[in-house]
Each structure stands twice: as structure tokens, then as C-alpha cells.
């Protein structure tokens, strides 16, 4: 069941979320890209947070099985409450039968102003801004009329979806995460960030799969602004495993890092 309204990645319906075609991933037209459901889990964690003036420091997401384009439920519980530090866990299940699809654990910290020694609180500067870059054309492997690629505007600093090796890009959300709610910068970061292994793919999409089984993000500070970016590199071992690591940034500069563990296999 896929929503036809196409205003966002998800349409809320009671206590469920109905995915639109903008969530469709590159490996199977019946499955979602992991970025949108990761952002949906983060949204639920932020809504349930106990530290009002807090910030997400780390979120670790486990992809237990492919997420189908079917109605979903998200539930949250507080694992470790606190006034300065808290941990929350969110789970995503299939609305029809309760099958667990993804799980996220997040550490949130109180956001206190801290006076650091000179220069230590300034982020590393970002690469060239998106205003001077061309909009990326649609990659050949995105054969669906509407898919995850269309949920964001992509502008590459270097590399490309179809150019093997390290790549860096800026993105801007074309649609909301949940219909009727402007996407937050954190949600944008997670929608985008799971594509790090896609933009830095070192193997041909037509001959290999390299799907990630997890996605972890650590933040030095909250992201901000309309444009966010990542600089990613993927490396493979000789035992069907790989790792993608990326630095994320906004217009001010470096925001944090992300990692993905990859299962590598020939098609």
C-alpha cells in the first residue's frame, strides 16, 4: 500500500505512517531506502525526549530486514532517563502483523553553553557551497518514475552516484518527511545520510549489491539550515563486508560523522 498523494515521504493515518513512492529504494521496487525510515525513528525519539533543551549526540539504527512500502508503526521507550543525559529506543514495525523492521537507540544530551579554549568550538569549514554547483542528473539505476532520489535535490562537490569512489555532495529536501510537517534539519540529515554508501559506491550498481545492515550518526552539534551535505568513502574487505564512513556538514561547517556496515554480494 503506497500513498498516492505524494506530498511527503510519509502520510500519517491514525497511528500508522503510509509510505509514498518517494521512499522507494534502489535494490528492490517493493522496499524503501533506509534513509526515510531512519528519519521517522529519529522524529519519534525527538518527540518523546525528556530533556527539553537537549540535543541528539548519537543515533544507532539497526536494519533488521528490508522495510516494505507498506503502513508502518513506530513506538518509543525511554531506556535511561536523566536531566543531562538520556537514552531512548524506537522500533519500527509492520502495521499489518507487528514484524519488527528497524530499531534505533539514541543518546541525547542537555545543550549547555560551554566556553572552550579559543578555536576549539569552531567547526571545520564546509566545501564549496551548493549555489555554485549543478543539480545532479537522475542516475541510470533509478528506473522508477518516482523514488528516493527525487525526495532530495543533489549537488555534487566531487564524485557522483555513477562515478566509483569517494564523493561529496550537498542536498536539499524536495518534500517533507511527514505530510503537513516541515522537515527538521536532523530529519533531513538522516534522510540524506543513509545514501553515503550510494554516492561513494566503489562497485558497479548493475553487477553488485552492497546494502547496509546498520546506520550510525554521531553529532558534534545540531545541524541547521536548508542545505546539508556529506563527504563519504566506502572500503571493502575480501570477506563480503565493507564500511562506509562520512563527514556531515551544513553551511557553517562540519556537523558530525556517520558509518554504515555493508554486506557485499554479486547480483
Topology:
Elements: E1 8-13, E2 16-19, H1 35-48, E3 54-63, E4 72-80, E5 85-94, E6 100-110, E7 152-160, E8 163-173, E9 176-178, H2 185-193, H3 196-199, E10 208-212, E11 214-219, E12 228-236, E13 241-250, E14 253-266
Parallel strand pairs: 1-9
Antiparallel strand pairs: 1-2, 3-6, 3-11, 4-5, 5-6, 7-8, 8-12, 10-14, 11-14, 12-13, 13-14
List keywords for this structure.
three-stranded mixed sheet, single chain, 10% helix, 3 helices, 14 strands, mainly beta
Distance between the termini: 27 Å
Number of strands: 14
Topology as a string of helices (H) and strands (E): EEHEEEEEEEHHEEEEE
Question: Shape, please?
Answer: globular
Number of helices: 3
Task: List low-pLDDT spans.
Answer: none
Cα gyration radius (Å):
18 Å
Counting helices, strands and paired strands, the structural category is mainly beta
Strand content: 35-45%
Mean pLDDT: 94
User: Assembly state here?
Assistant: single chain
Helix content: 10-25%
The major beta sheet can be summarized as: 11 strands, antiparallel
